[in-house]
Design goal:
This protein is of the alpha+beta class. The chain has a single domain, classed as YggU-like (Conserved Hypothetical Protein Mth637, Chain: A, 2-Layer Sandwich), CATH 3.30.1200.10. The protein has a five-stranded mixed β-sheet, with helices on one face. The protein is globular.
Length: about 100
């Protein structure tokens, strides 16, 4: 029997850390990170979407901005899509959004 599709709240619900909705734009001129109203994080990276390089750059950028090790950040939904859900272990969603807004 097929499973029912998950609701947005299930992806962003409580897990082991903060979950963020990301809209990734590969092959941009510059790396850029912007927190939009509603908590969506718009990220542009210079890396191409080939061999997971754009996802790797996304994780590096978030790691630098949040001052956490890269191993604490993982793409849990949308590995091959522009729209992703990323989990940051050891931080709450409010802490992550606040830190990203300050750094932007």
């Amino acid at each position: 029997m097929p499973r029912a599709p998950r609701k947005r709240e299930e992806y962003l619900g409580t897990g082991h850390g903060a979950r963020l909705q990301i809209r990734l734009k590969p092959r941009a001129k510059n790396d850029r990170l912007t927190v939009l109203p509603g908590g969506l994080v718009d990220v542009a990276v210079t890396s191409p979407p080939i061999d997971d390089r754009a996802n790797e750059r996304l994780i590096e950028l978030l790691s630098d901005r949040l001052d956490v090790p890269k191993r604490f950040i993982s793409v849990i939904v949308g590995g091959h899509s522009r729209n992703k859900v990323v989990e940051v272990e050891g931080m709450t969603r409010e802490e992550v959004v606040k830190k990203l807004k300050v750094e932007s």
